[in-house]
Design brief:
Elements lengths: L1 H8 L8 E5 L2 H8 L16 H7 L3 E5 L8 H4 L4 H11 L8
Parallel strand pairs: 1-2
Length: 98
């Protein structure tokens, strides 16, 4: 959200909602439903920022399968084939030395 505001100040209008891709369907349901459920009562009110932004149509939360989560390459260890697949999706190629 901060980067979007900064871009706007530099003259690049942000007209579409920010998309957040999530593989946790429970998290997506919580962000779209403004009702507090019994299971969510332990979550501190300050963590409901995303829910508020979804209501304001500033953020859009979409489901993306775990296998396709590019951010995982930065946060998790994984088998070589998955690592290479995610590198390809980011446009990173292995350099071979001769």
């Amino acid at each position: 959200m901060w980067l979007r505001k900064l871009l706007q100040e530099f003259g690049f209008p942000q007209t579409t909602p920010l998309k957040i891709y999530e593989d946790n369907q429970g998290c997506i349901a919580m962000s779209k439903n403004p009702v507090n459920h019994e299971r969510t009562k332990h979550i501190d009110i300050k963590y409901h920022f995303i829910r508020e932004k979804v209501e304001d149509k500033a953020i859009e939360v979409e489901y993306l399968q775990t296998e396709d989560m590019i951010a995982d390459i930065l946060t998790k260890s994984m088998p070589r084939d998955r690592h290479e697949k995610l590198c390809d999706k980011m446009g990173i190629r292995e350099v071979t030395r001769q």
